[in-house]
Amino acid sequence: MLTLLTNARLYAPAPRGLCQLLIADRRLAAIAAADAPALASGPTVTVLDLEGRRVIPGLVDPLVHVTGGGGEGGFGSRTAELGLEEALASGVTTLVGALGTDAVTRTPAGLLGKVRELAAGGLSAYCYTGSYQLPPVTLTGSVREDILFVPEVIGVGEVAISDHRGSQPTTAELTRLAAEARTAGMLAGKGGIVFIHTGDAPTHLEPLREVARTSAIPLAQFLPTHINRTRELFEDGVRFAREGGRIDFTTSTTPALIADGEVPAAEAVARALHARVAPSRITLSSDANASLPRFDAEGRFAGLEPGRLGSLFEVLGECVEAHGLPLERALGMASTHAADALGLARKGRLAEGFDADLLVLADGAWTIDEVWALGRRVHRRG
Asked: What family does the entry list (predicted)?
């Protein structure tokens, strides 16, 4: 199965001008200038002219609650599962599913089943073992064996720190968990990342620094998210990234959360870059289908809205159009840097040998015309 895309204005994410891209089954077999001899021809080749439209890597989302989330306000506040059609239209071609606050009525087995459903629909879908609480819930009885033996499991998360909904883990517990994930990842050829939910308690990211200070685990073994939750946490996240860690900003938000002090994700990216945080230390995630809850001063539930997978693409547009970031620089936050942090070797770039995950953008607008996942067109606008 050969597909030749011609006249693609390629951002890989670095700009490469007008190109032709040859897709062989699931991967990019070759890339050449548009005016070079055709990369393939003949009756077995499907040729599609993209007419100069921009082509960018498919987005990589490190946190999606594919089985739904919420529940902090009782069973009536549970959020819905992610639908396949919504996922295909969002521009996210690679996602990582996670459990959150509720790891009782939503289970690791249910999470894995949903991940496999999305993969059957054409996406690249992975998941974390564990949830907010420790000891972690697992499929096999251990984090190590889940990462080693379950192909879709690439790390552990979303483990909560500095949050009243977490299990208030000790330094020793976090260190042991990170060591187990790191070693299992090495043995399995995976990232073994420890994905961290960060709350708004004043301890912020200090629990992760304490692990690095008292053990051989590097800060980069962790990927803490929701760093734009409050302005105080954002400032601590900037320091954390300068110290060698990575930080992840949440793209789903609400006007109420922003009024409460959350930093909008595009603004957080611009401010972090202005503070001289290396771009490779910044990622974006949607927190899709999770609840975006509000709590009062005493920690009582005050309402929620669900996160949206499409917010990831929208925030990239805000980075470019509202904050003046070059497209190639913004793209890395939701493609290259995310894939590198997660240890997904063939994701996040459009290069020979990489998976053929790409978005075709509308001419002159921040809109997705087509989504290609693993060499197949899975969505077309209209």
From this structure: Belongs to the peptidase M38 family.
Beta strand pairing status for 193-198 and 222-225? Answer: parallel
Nearest CA to 282 among 269, 265, 271?
269
Q: Is the pLDDT of residue 239 over 90?
A: yes
State mean pLDDT over 49-57. Answer: 98
List the one residue out of 124, 110, 122, 120 whose CA is nearest residue 66. 110
> Bridge partners of 61?
95
Summarize the confidence of residues 286-298 as an average pLDDT.
Answer: 82
Residue 64: beta bridge partners?
97, 288
Of 142, 166, 151, the C-alpha closest to 72 is: 166
Which residue has tokens 């913004």? 330
Return the SS3 of 154.
Answer: strand
Using one digit for the tens of pLDDT, what is the confidence trace for 372-382? 999 999 999 98
Quote the CA–CA distance of 123 and 52 in Å, as a whole number: 26
Mean pLDDT of the chain: 96
Residue with tokens 């890597």: 57
Show the domains of the chain with their CATH numbers: 2-56+349-380 (2.30.40.10), 59-342 (3.20.20.140)
Strand duo 2-11 + 15-24: pairing: antiparallel
Complete DSSP assignment for 237-304: HHHHHHTT--EEEE----HHHHHTTPPPHHHHHHHHHHTT--GGGEEEE--BTSEEEEE-TTS-EEEE
Q: Tell me how far apart the alpha carbons of residues 67 and 240 are, in angstroms, rounded to a whole number.
A: 31
- Which residues, in sequence order, are bridge partners of residue 304? 293
Residues tagged active-site: 287
128 near 154, Cβ under 8 Å? Answer: yes
What's the pTM value of the predicted model, to 2 decimals?
A: 0.95
